[in-house]
Write a structure and sequence with these properties.
alpha/beta; five-stranded parallel sheet; elongated; Rossmann fold; transcription; 459 residues; 16 strands; transcription regulation; Sigma_54_int_dom_ATP-bd_2; Sig_transdc_resp-reg_receiver; ATP binding
């Protein structure tokens, strides 16, 4: 049962609030002053929430809140400030010191019930949230989450860390596939070895073989010296192949041989290099469908998918949204280390918790950094995240009226052409990258461009 500490010298109000808290199914604890509250807390577990009045005998509410934020074990307990006369000064002062919410007396039962449900359901100040906050202080990559879905991912990573088998990480863009790979590497017996990451979608097809396997001097124009490949550099550690679904078919065959033989032959040489690497691959694509379409080798999928690891999208792990938001907010750049970190208001929390997050954790991190940088106050409100809903609203109205008037085949062709041109422009003409942006294979891009009579120049 959650414990709620009420600090207020108004006996009638304090006792009435305690009765309401108890009726709602929580355990109330009462104190008439800050000194009495700290005496009551000494040697006892931290409460799950504190209601704190501004005007108290001795140290006032702001001073008590300041002390709470400096006391080990009490720093993350959510504090709701109470006042009979709200002013800009006491409201801003409370929020700067990290108050969770600010209420003006009298406070209705429904408001108390909704507030406590929000606080406790978001696990703000609960032991689980404090563990999450402690984890967030690490400088190493971490796959953070308190939801059941992420707990299962963390358990599977722990089990996979004890083996040396190839791992295939799947999940939408922005779910943290590379972070999962780094966490797996660090937890494994290879943790002291190198972690070499290769983005298969970002390297032109003609250079990918040299990048992975290395080359000898004179192997091709511009190869003025021998170069070790990324596979060889990963010897004794982990090779992370990101966006492996974008690898061209000829390279897929060569990668399959490396996985089978654990040997590489640098381009333009007869030298055979034996390697000891663990391969972790990742993709946002559905590889089984690509196998059916003939764009991904089935035997390679079997070799990669020894230990499957799927990262759920953020919309399927709602319990992680607010803890992650607070984590990113705590790490957001600040103009001065002396400025108190910003906090999320109740309406901002509701928006973040109900937003679809198509870009997943990466989009959430960017949204928090943007709002934190531009918000005028210490408390981030729903208005500070208006760009999220504005993007959604504008996307709904993005289809030009002229396009709506065309016959369906002509409208689809015109839209497809525009999307391809935009993707090629955004990727600097790199067709592999453009295909990745469009969510199709490179061969499919070529086929579509041919069907639309799009040449290199017109694109």
């Amino acid at each position: 049962m959650a414990t709620i500490l009420i600090i207020d010298d108004d006996d009638a109000f304090r006792e009435g609030l305690a009765e309401t808290v108890q009726d709602l199914g929580y355990s109330p604890s009462e104190a008439r002053s800050g000194e009495e509250a700290f005496e009551r807390l000494r040697g006892r577990p931290a409460p799950d929430c504190i209601f704190l009045d501004f005007r108290l005998p001795g140290a006032d509410g702001l001073a008590v809140l300041d002390t709470l934020r400096k006391t080990p074990g009490l720093q993350t307990v959510p504090v709701v400030m109470l006042t009979a006369h709200a002013t800009s000064d006491n409201t801003i002062g409370a929020m700067r010191l990290g108050a969770f919410e600010h209420l003006t007396k009298p406070v209705g039962r429904d408001e108390i019930a909704a507030l406590l449900e929000r606080i406790l359901s978001a696990q703000v100040g609960t032991p689980a949230a404090r563990v999450f906050a402690e984890e967030a202080r690490s400088h190493e990559p971490q796959l953070l989450g308190v939801s059941e879905a992420m707990r299962e991912v963390q358990k599977r990573i722990g089990r996979a860390a004890g083996a040396n088998s190839t791992v295939l990480i799947t999940g939408e863009t922005g779910t943290g596939k590379e972070i999962a790979a780094r966490v797996l590497h660090r937890a494994s017996a290879r943790g002291s070895g190198p972690f070499i990451a290769v983005n298969c979608a970002a390297i032109p097809d003609e250079l990918l073989e040299s990048e992975l396997f290395g080359h000898g001097k004179g192997a091709f124009t511009g190869a003025q010296a021998e170069r070790r490949g990324r596979v060889e550099e990963a010897h004794g550690g982990t090779l992370f192949l990101d966006e492996v679904g974008d690898m061209p078919l000829p390279m897929q065959a060569k990668l399959l041989r490396v996985l089978q033989e654990r040997q590489v032959t640098p381009l333009g040489t007869n030298r055979i290099v034996t390697v000891d690497v663990r391969v972790v691959a990742a993709t946002h694509r559905h590889l089984a469908s690509m196998v059916e379409a003939g764009t991904f080798r089935q035997d390679l999928l079997f070799r990669l998918n020894v230990i499957p690891l799927h990262l759920p999208p953020l919309r399927e792990r709602v319990a992680d949204i607010l803890p992650l938001a607070e984590h990113f907010l705590a790490g957001a750049p600040s103009a001065s280390p002396d400025i108190a970190r910003k906090h999320l208001s109740a309406d901002a929390q509701r928006l973040l918790a109900t937003f679809a997050w198509p870009g997943n954790v990466r989009e959430l991190a960017n949204a928090i950094e943007r709002a934190s940088a531009l918000a005028p106050g210490q408390v981030l409100t729903r208005e500070d995240f208006a760009f999220l809903t504005a993007t959604k609203d504008s996307a709904d109205d993005a289809i030009p009226l002229a396009l709506l008037e065309l016959p369906l085949p002509q409208a689809v062709a015109q839209l497809e052409r525009a999307l391809i041109v935009h993707a090629l422009s955004a990727s600097g003409g790199n067709r592999a990258e453009a295909a990745r942006r469009l969510g199709i294979s490179r061969q499919s891009l070529y086929t579509r461009m041919a069907a639309l009579s799009m040449s290199e120049a017109s694109a």
